[in-house]
Write a structure and sequence with these properties.
Largest interface: A-B, 44 and 43 residues
Number of strands of chain A: 16
Oligomer: homodimer
Radius of gyration of chain A: 21 Å
Shape of chain A: globular
Structural class of chain A: alpha/beta
Strand order of the largest sheet of chain A: 4-14-13-12-11-10-6-5
Strand content of chain A: 15-25%
Chain lengths: 415, 415
């Protein structure tokens, strides 16, 4: 068994389900914290577990450059390398490579790009991106796609969408031929680390203080014949017809899950919503649907209500580093002098370890003093807020509270 | 009760004891992690508790500049401000002010100095240093002293020592007249925060995973009439006779504990040891003895064996930020390429949460990638190593193993 997905409850278009991967059982809709280079910046793995993170995301582009796929592979894949026992998803590297702008050159074969670290030249093709992701060994990996820039004209959107479709077929072909090479799969040549890793999973170092319902989210042994799962990505720019065609062509190739890519690239949020909503109509109802790179707390609730099952975003972690904190009463810019003597918790409605223990005055002081603990605590709170938001979304869906869906999980008045 | 100290066991000159302050019961000899601006850099308070830190140090100079004594006082003192329920010691600001070199000017009255943050001009006297430390509200505070530079000639060492003695008398006078003004003492005017803080202490948020013998180290309620304790500081440069005279004059003023200051200022380590050993002979045997600003793991064991009860040093935390890690097999510079694919733990003999979970390869990657988690994990390990070292020292003393004292706690061959 490499992936299974079941839908247990519905509320309008929203779906509550369970995604089972080789390393974890994940309740959906799920928010996936971003751990770019094998670390969710500033947060130790045991705290991520306590927060109830079921699956995290790694960035293939960054990991490929540093520490390199070979190193990660030798450490039993990303799970062993970063000692994360639950699920991992890696992106294909496509989005990041396309973000390099001046440093890349695209043709049918793939993309030549220069490292942002040292300017060295590299090449990603659907095949090499699969090779890298197999070596990294995430539970779920992504087809190599072209993220169409915004704005783009009709011809450009079509050409880009069609290339993504051809690359999806090449990604799948390479993956099917090489999926047994995953570091934790049947072809694993590192029994010592694998055994160590398996032992850890059988006897998880479970923190008794973590929520009881996290228990089933703990990692469990990887069965000998499980492999990774490759998801396809729908592109097509901001054109609904092209999105429909991209969905159909990607489904025709056939994947166990489908992502919507190429959004949050500068377009207005109303347009994002339109494209998400119309694209979802063309995706199989029985397969997980992953909306890449979104969004604010309000947005992730909204996309879940539209029927999205998986989301990821750097916003909670990146904003935390800039002192921007999400709370039940809206955003707080903790650097402001008004908080200098504020003895209250960051969010009185939040039960996270930061809100339970520290005052706004202390968080403000840590930020103003450029203390590393500011990033650590801010990130823990923001992730807790996102994960709790999704937990409430799942609870709401399980109750079938269609009419009160949005209001029950996000009670703040709209701006 | 503001301070009590009892010696329970001896091994040679080493003493195993118990220091009871208003916020915690501390087993000695103790190593105190440094939390300069109300944060042990990169480590959340609950992890410090798990590590078994019984008392931490705050720097008055830094806290005076940012966030300012007034802010800390309003938050129930440092304990409330940083949500640390165990004991705290603050230095007098003297050492840091004297480190400013070009930015300071000393006379009999006190020291005028410029802030390293914004160049603004400030003045510390024995009286204002006491006022600041009373406002910060640590359990133990330090007399305002002059840290004699090294090298210094005989006349300079004597003059400096004599000024420290006069400043000690002024420090004590001000402290005795104002000690009731401590934020958590009888004169507290912030009942809400005090009540909140007291409630926390009665029901400590105790982590069940922490070591069982940490339980008695947890904070407990501050009785209504307890105050801070002021320690005196012995100076006298590198001259044994002046140190003796300084000890005698400081003891004549009378303090509940005595520190040895003015060491680790550039002198050879053999000289440090000589001065420590000879000064200890002149300090009361029934009072706690605090050696300021030392040292390496080997050194803290050695000083404990000489009869020192308390030590602090930035070394474990600062070295961690530079990737320099202390292990049972010696120092490890984790940035080295040789660790890039080293799947073993940092220290196979260490039971800390870092060594239990992460590989050298991962720690090396985090450091090389400039990830904040590198500082967090490296600091946790180094502090764990120091605190465990002291735990073994205490255990060894309690067994009275005089002959095997050093070898049992520090088995690494001398370089």
């Amino acid at each position: 068994m490499s992936l299974s997905f079941e839908i247990n409850s519905r509320s309008g278009n929203a779906r509550g389900g369970r995604l089972i991967t080789p390393h974890a059982e994940i309740e959906t809709p799920v928010f996936m914290p971003v751990g770019t280079v094998a670390s969710v910046k500033g947060v130790p793995q045991d705290i991520l577990e306590d927060l109830g993170a079921q699956i995290i995301l790694g960035n293939t582009y960054h990991l490929y450059l540093r520490p390199g796929v070979d190193t990660v592979r030798k450490m039993d894949g990303l799970h062993g390398f970063m000692s994360w026992r639950r699920a991992i998803l890696t992106d294909s590297g496509g989005f990041q490579v396309f973000s390099l702008n001046e440093l890349r050159k695209v043709n049918e074969e793939g993309v030549t790009f220069r490292s942002h670290l040292d300017g060295s030249s590299h090449f990603f093709s659907p095949e090499s991106a699969m090779e890298a992701q197999i070596g990294l060994g995430a539970d779920i990996i992504m087809a190599f796609d072209e993220c169409t820039e915004y704005p783009a004209d009709q011809a450009r959107m079509r050409a880009s969408m069609e290339m993504t479709a051809r690359w999806a077929a090449r990604s799948k072909k390479y993956f099917e031929e090489h999926k047994s090479e995953v570091p934790w799969g049947p072809a694993s040549e590192i029994p010592t680390l694998a055994a160590k890793s398996a032992a850890r999973m059988v006897h998880p170092d479970q923190n008794p203080t973590s929520r009881a319902n996290d228990a089933r989210e703990m990692g469990y042994p990887v069965s000998g014949d499980s492999t990774q799962s490759l998801f396809g990505i729908v592109q097509g720019g901001m054109d609904r017809a092209l999105r429909k065609e991209s969905a159909e062509r990607t489904i025709e190739i056939g994947f166990p899950g489908y992502a919507i890519g190429g959004l949050s690239v500068g377009e207005p949020r109303e347009l994002t919503r339109e494209i998400v909503e119309s694209t979802l109509e063309h995706l199989p109802r029985d397969k997980p649907r992953y909306l890449m790179g979104v969004g604010t707390p309000e947005e992730i609730v909204e996309y879940a209500s539209l029927g999205v099952d998986m989301m990821d975003c750097v916003l909670p972690t990146r904003a935390a580093r800039h002192g921007l904190l999400f709370t039940s009463e809206g955003k707080v810019s903790i650097k402001q002098a008004r908080y200098a003597q504020d003895a209250g918790p960051l969010d009185a409605n939040c039960g996270c370890r930061v809100c339970n223990r520290y005052s706004r005055a202390y968080l403000r002081h840590l930020y103003a003093s450029n203390e590393v603990l500011a990033q650590v605590l801010n990130t823990i709170h923001n992730l807790s807020f996102y994960l709790d938001t999704m937990r409430r979304v799942r609870h709401s869906i399980s109750l079938g509270e269609e009419s009160r869906f949005l209001s029950s999980v996000w009670s703040r008045p709209k701006p």
